[in-house]
Amino acid sequence: MDEKTEGNSSIRSTTFEINMFGSSMASLGARLFFKHSQRCLSSKQLMYEKYGHPPDVLNLVTKEVGEVGADEVRVRWLGAPINPADINQLQGVYPIRPPLPAVGGMEGFGEVEEVGSEVTTLRAGDWVVPGISAAGSWRTFGKHCERKLFKIANDLPFDSAATFQVNPPTAYRMLKDFVKLKAGDLVVQNGANSSVGRCVIQLCKLWNIRTVNVVRNRENLGALIRELKEIGADEVFTEEEMKKESKDRAKNAQLALNCVGGRSSLMLSTCLSSKGVMVTYGGMSKKPIEVPTGPFIFKDIKLVGFWISQWYATQGTEKDREAMFEELQDLIKHGKLCPPKTNKLKLEDWKTAVTNAMNSLGTKQLLVMQ
Length: 370
What we know:
Largest sheet: 7 strands, mixed
Order of helices and strands: HEHEEHEEEEEHHEHEHEHEHEHEHHEHE
Number of strands: 16
CATH topology of the largest domain: Quinone Oxidoreductase, Chain A, domain 1
Mean pLDDT: 90
Low-confidence stretches: 25-38
Number of domains: 2
């Protein structure tokens, strides 16, 4: 090799090394920038530092998310409803009280964006719902422990995904776990226009179980009755009608579902057949449950309570939950289990959404995060 050729080779080698060094530094810089951007990712969060009147105690703040831990995932929250339980939690009267300050929202869905090194059941792109009642879904981004999230199908309609974790499973478990219902049996329920009530109606229709449904009187009663019958209700009455001429149509019910309490629960319990069961899952009237002495003794009727958070935590197995989720998701995808009517509002419009949730009849307020 002559001196000129050797010199050119040396130049090419040096240039290659410089290019490789530059490429390596660029790659390192990109990785460092990515890590820095993840550490500095900010999240809008609807938080509260004390209990009280929800519009007064909530504040929309911005917080850094930080890097995910080994057993954590970062979730980009997409949508979350405002349920009665959320209002109760903010008021300080709900059984679950997260350490304060806390992010509001016990239900919703989001997309996994990053997973920790020890995460095995979730990956980027998965859709998830909270597995506990204090996840804090009213935020744009959050870090969450893998075991505190449940994976759902990522092709569900937006409204169905956002309202999937609480109401459909509550209706499903109450219909499955307390009485062995068969085609032709009768279920009577109050609060029939609630999200759970509507799920009960639709599931019973699919399983050929009759329903008698009690609602409060209101201006648009006729429209509500038509709406509930369109999704499968057999009978719809006001409480006043049930007390008078319509009670006979609800006789000998195998199962009663109570979310109101007070005189309404008394009315339901008198409709039960021998060894019938009344399941209480709410107390919207804020009055104690009432039950007649005679049927309680001579018909051996039973009163039980149900709370879906407790079922997830201690009663249902992972296999039970997965089977239930699979069945409910399949019904949703085939249009056989529809979500409640929703009013979508941006997270920034939270005051309007919360106020509406405290006053509305039948329309679910849904916060859209992105």
